[in-house]
Amino acid sequence: MNPGRLGALLPVAGAYWLGAALARTLLLQAPRRIAVDLAQPMVVVTSWGAYGGEAFAILAATVALATLSLIVAARRLARDAVPGDVAAIALVAALGVAGACAWPFVFSSDAYAYAAYGAMANDGLDPYAPLPASAHSALYDATRWQWGGAYPACVYGPAFVGIAAALGRATSAHGVTATLWAFRLLAGLAFVAGIPLLGAALAAWSAARRFTALCAYALNPVSLWSVAEGHNDALLMLLVMTAGAVAVRRPPLGAFLIGLSPLLKAPGAALALGAALESWLGRRPGRSSIVTGVLAGLALAAAVTLPPLGPVLAAAGAHGRYAPEISIQGLLGPLPALGLAALAAAYGSARLAARDRGGLAWIGIALLMALPNAYPWYALWLVPWCLGAGDTGASRALWAATIFSVSRYLPDAWGTLSPDGARLAAGAAALPLLWAATDLRRTAFDRKKATQP
């Protein structure tokens, strides 16, 4: 590991340590009205008004500083990338996650729900059903309070429920705080462990392209924060990265493994189908066995996952409220956004059929447009669509959109935004996608040039 190259990447992690210091300074002036929030096992910025806006501003500034540091360092170092860079990137990612964990608050309550699902499984209750009103414990009560009275039924795969139950058994004797930290630490370890696996999966790429891809995934500033909050997307991506590394030598087995990813979380199905689509439309060698492996894995995952999830999905369909916010759908409305998503997906598929991997980024953009709420932690599984696409306007636009997705934290941190404020935040989240127009223009130019005599 070259100390000079490591030092060039360290400011990415340093931004989170600086942000932690500013966040702790902010809490010195905390208003009395949030004293109950500050007394919780894990402090979540929720409806703090202007004070929550200040907390969000520190996070936004931290993400901006980390992003600028990453772009500067990656551009300078990619030209002479070396094998030891994988270890340097993993170390900086670990330091970045640690810096984010040093903050005195987070912006998501998901870790509480994860812990409650594990506790329900251990207590013989169904995590795919609402918690009975008669069930009480320190964890259940803390989770109820954090979610405003009732947390949602589990929508994750049985494999994740099993992991949550195991963490609960290992930490419950040490209190709620220990259990919540266990989820955060597990997410961090899973994320960092996936970095060398991604490096192995990209072994055939040029050194410069592999370095850029590793930085784009492992040092994505929003991903680093999301991992520190404990989001289970990190576990999903560890399985996906493992599948990618296995696929280098045994493509069908790797395809089968990625097909199993919905056992952890549903977005794994999109990544699995994307791998099958790219292989089939791109007419890759052995595409039939890859597609078969993906479909076999998805079929097994569906057989295990859908039965317990059935009642949850039925209840959501009957009683759920569709409320897009701080997303393309929130800005344009569901139908226009879904129409644009369909066009992007069709265009991306056509690019793949022409053996242009740049189409992957357009399918990733289609997924982003189809999301009613583009939460920041979705960056963890949206960034891989950029990596396979290469350096295109669409891939840059999608990567930038994952950075701007941090704006989704604002309404939860502040409270209900005004209509103008919500539109402004949604517009900020959507703005980077305009960059994708440069990809359309370049493609049109290349086609025109190809038809000239």
Condensed summary:
The protein has helices at residues 3-27, 35-38, 50-77, 85-101, 110-122, 138-146, 158-171, 176-201, 207-218, 221-228, 233-247, 251-259, 267-281, 287-319, 328-332, 334-353, 359-370, 379-389, 393-404, 409-414, 419-430, 436-451.
Task: Give an account of the 3D structure.
This protein has a domain at 325-332 and 362-453. 71% of the residues lie in helices and 0% in strands. The protein contains 22 helices and no strands. The protein has helices spanning 3-27, 35-38, 50-77, 85-101, 110-122, 138-146, 158-171, 176-201, 207-218, 221-228, 233-247, 251-259, 267-281, 287-319, 328-332, 334-353, 359-370, 379-389, 393-404, 409-414, 419-430, 436-451. The longest helix has 33 residues, at 287-319. It starts with a helix and ends with a helix.
Shape annotation: globular
Largest beta-sheet details: none
- Helix count equals 22
Secondary-structure-derived class: mainly alpha
- Ends: how far apart? 51 Å
Strand content: under 5%
| Number of E strands | 0
Mean pLDDT across residues: 91
Helices and strands, in order, run as HHHHHHHHHHHHHHHHHHHHHH
Low-confidence stretches: 447-453
Helix content: over 70%
Radius of gyration: 22 Å
Task: List the main descriptive attributes of the protein structure presented here.
single chain, disordered C terminus, mainly alpha, 453 residues, 71% helix
Secondary-structure blueprint:
Blueprint: H1 3-27, H2 35-38, H3 50-77, H4 85-101, H5 110-122, H6 138-146, H7 158-171, H8 176-201, H9 207-218, H10 221-228, H11 233-247, H12 251-259, H13 267-281, H14 287-319, H15 328-332, H16 334-353, H17 359-370, H18 379-389, H19 393-404, H20 409-414, H21 419-430, H22 436-451
